[in-house]
Write a structure and sequence with these properties.
6-stranded mixed beta sheet; Rossmann fold; 161 residues; alpha/beta; globular; 6 helices
Length: 161
């Protein structure tokens, strides 16, 4: 369980995002979904590997420029040292880097929410599972359509034969 805390007069969870900068489809979708329940707010991010795009996205989202990063490794390291560090990270970067990003943030003891796929192979997935268990960190993989009523009905029909 992620414990909610009061930070600077604002309660709730805080998160950072990897990916989701200009031109991204799924990054803004995740931010909108998280905002819907009003229990978490974005405080940091590495939205692109282009510094100008990172700065632009951070500005649009009202993120302190000191918490906008062009490299996810730097973000993990610096956020882990902050007294007001984020509670979890949301990974919406290109698929081929999901494993490396997730591993980096687990190593710094952050909870992880990762857009599918979580990794490129079973061994990587097992490594992330082991790390999250050893560090007692939540690791969640999102599947965009599983909550849609039509998809649930289709699943029910398939399982029913």
């Amino acid at each position: 369980m992620i414990e909610s805390r009061n930070i600077g007069g604002q309660s709730g969870l805080t998160y950072g995002q990897i990916g989701g900068g200009p031109g991204s489809f799924i990054g803004p979708v995740h931010r909108a979904a998280i905002a819907m329940n009003n229990q978490a707010r974005i405080v940091s991010g590495c939205f692109s590997d282009v510094p100008e795009e990172v700065a632009e996205t951070a500005r649009e989202l009202g993120i302190d420029p000191s918490r906008a990063y062009a490299r996810y490794e730097e973000m993990a390291q610096k956020e882990a040292l902050r007294e007001d560090k984020m509670d979890f990270v949301v990974i919406t970067a290109p698929n081929h880097i999901h494993y490396d990003v997730a591993k980096t943030f687990l190593e710094k003891d952050f909870h992880v929410v990762c857009e599918k796929p979580l990794s490129l192979d079973l061994e990587q997935a097992k490594t992330l599972l082991r790390m999250s268990r050893e560090r007692k960190r939540l690791f969640m993989v999102t599947y965009t359509y599983t909550g849609y009523p039509m998809i649930r009905e289709a699943r029910h029909l398939v399982r029913s034969g």
